[in-house]
Amino acid sequence: MASYSVRMTDTPSPSLALDDQLCFALYAASRAVTARYRPLLDGLGITYPQYLVLMLLWEEDGQTVGQLGARLALDSGTLSPLLKRLTAAGLVTRHRRADDERSVSIQLTEVGRSLKQPACAVNEDMIGALGLDKTEFGELKSQLRLITKRVATPRDTTTAPEPAA
User: Fold this and answer.
1) Angle at the Cα of 116 from the Cα atoms of 94 and 136, rounded to 5 degrees
2) Handedness of CA 114, 118, 124, 127 (dihedral sign)
3) Is 159 helix (H, G, I), strand (E, B) or coil?
4) What is the residue range of 105's domain?
5) Which of 63, 101, 139, 143 has its CA 20 to 30 A from that of 91?
6) Number of structural domains, the chain?
7) Is residue 62 in some structural domain?
8) Quick one: pLDDT at residue 165?
9) Looking at residue 103, what is its pLDDT?
10) What distance in Å separates the CA atoms of residue 49 and residue 54, rounded to the nearest whole number?
């Protein structure tokens, strides 16, 4: 019971003021970061979601649609049109896997591979724009991943906390 009351005093008070909302701070930051990427990626002829797919393929070429979707937290209804546009742009090819006809493998073309080096300049620009040192950069990524994990994990609603005395 004591740990519950201590925990409650350490959490923010509920508020409907916009400036008090973590969700709005995350939303505004996400929009600002994505807007910063836009002109840099326009120079490469790709969108931000396409950039994310290409980064995964630069890490490991030949991933399946399912693997890409899992890493990007995208369903096939969102990912398939994105992959079709990358294919039409000549950046990737799609092939049914010989070992599993239900699975589609995505592979970079030479043009897709050639964007890797220029993409490093995009990444360098974004790191500079943030103005964080290595430690701050790592801590921020860790905090954002923790937020994602916590809000993506269903809460146990079967046991209600004990009321404070």
Assistant:
1) 120
2) negative
3) coil
4) 23-152
5) 101
6) 1
7) yes
8) 52
9) 87
10) 9
Would you say residue 18 lies in a domain? Answer: no
* Cα 4 to Cα 161: distance, rounded to the nearest angstrom: 7
What are the φ and ψ backbone dihedral angles of 158, each rounded to 5 degrees?
A: -80, -25
| Residue 9 resides in a domain | no
Which residue, chain included where needed, has tokens 């500079």?
A: 128
Q: What is the CATH number of the domain that holds 102?
A: 1.10.10.10
User: pLDDT by residue for the chain (165 residues), tens digit each?
Assistant: 444 444 556 888 889 999 999 999 999 999 999 999 999 999 999 999 999 999 999 999 999 999 999 999 999 899 999 999 999 999 999 998 878 778 899 999 999 999 999 999 999 999 999 999 999 999 999 999 999 999 998 877 665 555 555
Residue 11 domain-assigned (yes or no): no
Give DSSP secondary structure letters for 50-112. HHHHHHHHHHSTTEEHHHHHHHHT--HHHHHHHHHHHHHTTSEEEEE-SS-TT-EEEEE-HHH
